[in-house]
Write a structure and sequence with these properties.
single chain, 305 residues, 41% helix, binds 3-hydroxy-3-methylglutaryl-coenzyme A, binds magnesium ion, lyase, HMGL, PYR_CT
Length: 305
């Protein structure tokens, strides 16, 4: 094997974000039954963690305003189904439906904290504090997201030290895992390695971290490989490369799950995902959305015959 496989983890957990990060960004609201079918098909293709929706203010993200209708349609599915929760109101809505895995979502920059949460960084962490405590007390797992870890559309490049500080504070609140977001897709592999080394230096080791790359500049796969080489073994991806963020205009689709699985398969890393089935799911979803998937792997595999 030409690639030094001892440098990378044997196992990678894929955290599928298509139904949440992907569909939150669609202009047209996708019918709830189509979302449920999308999630069922993702689970049937072997994905074990599928971020299903958000319990945010319905006016802020109308695309996901049907969380109450969607979650009960997924009961019994053989997959973890985390959901985004920004505040206590959102937590109450999630717990009432039996959601047992949530994610709070902070920002390394003041500009995005304000745009996305209507709060400063300090205020947003204060908003999360009772959410994390109450969720953990209720037995729920709590992921933290940290957005704008590399660059911010208003503030430009984000200093590594600033990211490390907010990351530390999210773990101090009680998050069990932290996903490092390249919200606008500007990271490059050297920057990823540098940030992970700086986090490692303060005890935030790769086993507690995930990476969340958007693919604006086509760097998401290269960045993922750099993260794997730094010991990260949880990678966020979105089926078909759906995605973006309605509060960061320069955000485009996430790393496509199919592109990730193709690379991992080539590296001999088993993900348990059936790539043909996943591709068929993204082609099916693209037909609902009325445009082809931007994923190169989806395009290649679906045009093979
Ligand atoms: P706010 O306007 O400051 O809200 O928004 P508020 O706290 O002042 O409350 C105003 C009213 O909203 C109240 O109602 C609340 O009850 C209600 P009233 O008393 O006036 O009748 N309210 C809610 N209702 C339902 N569910 C709720 C909720 N919260 C308050 N959860 C807020 C603050 C945080 C709510 C708002 O800013 C918000 O919802 N933001 C979410 C934005 C979002 O979802 N962005 C996308 C996800 S982040 C992302 O995509 C990045 C990521 O992928 C990683 C990466 O790529 O970097 C994760
Ligand atoms: Mg995102």
């Amino acid at each position: 094997m030409p690639f030094p496989s001892e440098d990378i983890p044997d196992r990678v957990r894929i955290h599928e974000v298509g139904p949440r990060d992907g569909l939150q960004n669609e202009k047209a609201v996708v019918p709830t039954e189509v979302k449920a079918e999308f999630i069922r098909r993702l689970a049937a293709s072997g994905l074990k963690t599928i971020e299903a929706t958000s319990f945010v203010h319905p006016k802020w993200v109308p695309q996901l305003a049907d969380a109450e209708q969607l979650m009960p349609m997924l009961s019994g599915l053989d997959a973890r189904l985390p959901a985004l929760v920004p505040n206590e109101r959102g937590l109450e809505r999630a717990l009432a439906l039996g959601v047992d895995e949530i994610a709070v979502f902070g920002s390394a920059t003041e500009s995005f904290a304000k745009a996305n949460l209507n709060r400063s960084v300090d205020e947003s962490l204060a908003m999360f504090e009772p959410v994390v405590t109450r969720a953990r007390d209720a037995g729920a797992q709590v992921r933290g997201y940290l957005s704008m870890c590399f660059g911010d559309p208003w503030e430009g490049p984000v200093p590594v030290r600033q990211v490390v500080q907010v990351a530390r504070r999210l773990f101090d609140l009680g998050c069990t895992e932290l996903s490092l977001g390249d919200t606008i897709g500007v990271a490059t592999p050297g920057h990823v390695t540098e940030l992970l080394a700086a986090l490692h230096e303060v005890g935030l080791t790769a086993d507690r971290l995930a990476v969340h790359f958007h693919d604006t500049y086509g760097q998401a796969l290269a960045n993922t490989l750099a993260a794997l080489q730094s010991g990260v073994c949880t990678v966020d991806a979105s089926a078909g490369g759906l995605g973006g963020c309605p509060y960061a205009k320069s955000a485009t689709g996430n790393l496509a799950t199919e592109d990730l699985v193709w690379m991992l398969n080539g590296l001999g890393i088993d993900t348990g995902v059936d790539l043909d089935r996943l591709t068929a799911t993204s082609v099916w979803m693209a037909a609902h959305l009325g445009r082809p998937s931007p994923s190169r792997t989806v395009r290649a595999l679906s045009h093979k015959e």
